[in-house]
Amino acid sequence: MRTMTSHTPESKKRNGEHILIKMIYIAKNVDLDSGIELTRALEFWRRYFEENNIVSALVISEDYFVQSFQGTRPAINTALEKILDKHSTIFPNIVNIEEIESRQWNGFLVKHLTSSAKDEEYALKSFSAGSDYNPYLMTSTQIESFLTAVFEDTKSSNF
């Protein structure tokens, strides 16, 4: 007969809880264009990520999502599964997955790109491969630099 034991640091290491992962994906914004649907989805994910100790930087435009989220290996895997399940019309294109030493962001950060001069500078001049903002035309390095530039003032060296 097996008895339930509490999770020890050694048992957590068996599932990868001690390894931090960063995942970046892009997706077309097809079902959450704006307004109440988007607000509800953002609040759901903010709470979910907070409860699961995941930090995130999300850029939303009229047509695209670009998101980096960071947390433990099991938390990131579960979050990705939940994203795929909850938003069946969003097909994320994973740009990069890598192990990291510390979280880059602090909390659940969201930036909605507008037609302001500063947003156009982020999206078009420095990082886009074409004349219009399209993350599908950007390399993984450009996408990562884009996210860093957009959230430059909100970085966290440790979490």
Automatic annotation (TrEMBL):
Pfam families xrefs: BLUF (PF04940)
Tree of life domain: Bacteria
Domain BLUF: 20-111
Entry protein name: BLUF domain-containing protein
Protein species of origin: Psychrobacter glacincola
